Amino acid sequence: MSSISLQNISKSYAANMPKAVEQLSLEIADGEFLCLLGPSGCGKTTTLRMLAGLEHPTGGTISIGDKPIVSVDQGIYVPAEKRGLGLVFQSYALWPHMTVTQNIEFGLRLHKVARAEREATVARVMETLGIARYKDRYPNQLSGGQQQRVALARMLALNPGIILLDEPLSNLDAKLRLEMRAELKRIHKEVGATIVFVTHDQWEAMTLASKIAVMSEGELQQLGTPDDIYERPANRFVAEFVGNLPINIVGAGHGKAGDGPLEDWIAEYLGAIGAPDTVASVGIRPEAVAILRTQENTSGFPVRNASVVDVLPTGGNWIIELSVDGSKLFAITGSTPRLAPGDTVRIGFAPEDIHLFDSADERIDFTHSA
């Protein structure tokens, strides 16, 4: 079994510093593709390194299957080389004086695999990753994408049940990143290994993972499927971090000092749908902001006039920057908007498309009853 369990894992580098990881608990199912997602310094790479055996946790237990590989309380620590894990770093760490074939078979040689089996394994993984034609080249004769494939092949040759990937695509250009994402999904499907993938790129996590663990300041913010993370963010941090175009966050109004027309409209809207009084802020994703074509409002919910500040084409989509009496709001559309800066439009959104947060920035679950 290649399931992974992390129970109350903590990591501290110094007594007078905040913990790099704080009481982290995760259950990763056998064959799952989990992405550890978060900004720089959130503890995701430290977590991966503790799982790999390159860092010692200061508290907690890590198990693979039903076998503990780390337990601070019990004094258990299985060395990295005995954990049966495959690891690919952000730096590909290829031996510059070895050919592609020699790099890929390096781990097999260390494990004293017989020559015939070694050659068959190397040939198979090179064919799988489409790099057989480069078998006699050296790393400096390869592109970044080809080097990435060699690093993956070297790891896959050992047939690990668990694969750990630390931002392995960050050095590639956009086209190669797209190709390698597809390659990783294919490898995961074919090999069936459990994969833990570290990234700060939310788009990468959304397209690759079966589960995403969002982290911030060493703590787990939310664990869920990509759809869960995007459609039901557990708090404001997750809502603001995940999304190709950032979510619109608006205060809930309630007549507080500093409220403006946009907040007043949101307060009116919340009253119309019967939202609880504990709402402190509202999140509206740009694709949920509807630009109404006529002055007639058939939704039954409050709409608002807004002026167009700018229209930004992105190739296939258009970002529309709006102003509600000086407060910014962003919308996005897949059809040509035929709008120009200075135009006045009416905007609205459906109750099921808004996200409600309390004063502690935690999600409020609320369903409008028509």
TrEMBL record:
<dbReference type="InterPro" id="IPR017871">
    <property type="entry name" value="ABC_transporter-like_CS"/>
</dbReference>
<dbReference type="Pfam" id="PF00005">
    <property type="entry name" value="ABC_tran"/>
</dbReference>
<dbReference type="InterPro" id="IPR003593">
    <property type="entry name" value="AAA+_ATPase"/>
</dbReference>
<dbReference type="GO" id="GO:0016887">
    <property type="term" value="F:ATP hydrolysis activity"/>
</dbReference>
<feature type="domain" description="ABC transporter">
    <location>
        <begin position="4"/>
        <end position="242"/>
    </location>
</feature>
<dbReference type="GO" id="GO:0140359">
    <property type="term" value="F:ABC-type transporter activity"/>
</dbReference>
<dbReference type="InterPro" id="IPR013611">
    <property type="entry name" value="Transp-assoc_OB_typ2"/>
</dbReference>
<dbReference type="GO" id="GO:0055052">
    <property type="term" value="C:ATP-binding cassette (ABC) transporter complex, substrate-binding subunit-containing"/>
</dbReference>
<dbReference type="InterPro" id="IPR012340">
    <property type="entry name" value="NA-bd_OB-fold"/>
</dbReference>
<dbReference type="InterPro" id="IPR003439">
    <property type="entry name" value="ABC_transporter-like_ATP-bd"/>
</dbReference>
<dbReference type="Pfam" id="PF08402">
    <property type="entry name" value="TOBE_2"/>
</dbReference>
<comment type="similarity">
    <text>Belongs to the ABC transporter superfamily.</text>
</comment>
<keyword id="KW-1003">Cell membrane</keyword>
<dbReference type="InterPro" id="IPR047641">
    <property type="entry name" value="ABC_transpr_MalK/UgpC-like"/>
</dbReference>
<keyword id="KW-0067">ATP-binding</keyword>
<keyword id="KW-0472">Membrane</keyword>
<dbReference type="InterPro" id="IPR027417">
    <property type="entry name" value="P-loop_NTPase"/>
</dbReference>
<keyword id="KW-0547">Nucleotide-binding</keyword>
<dbReference type="InterPro" id="IPR008995">
    <property type="entry name" value="Mo/tungstate-bd_C_term_dom"/>
</dbReference>
<keyword id="KW-1278">Translocase</keyword>
<keyword id="KW-0813">Transport</keyword>
<dbReference type="GO" id="GO:0005524">
    <property type="term" value="F:ATP binding"/>
</dbReference>
<protein>
    <submittedName>
        <fullName>ABC transporter ATP-binding protein</fullName>
    </submittedName>
</protein>
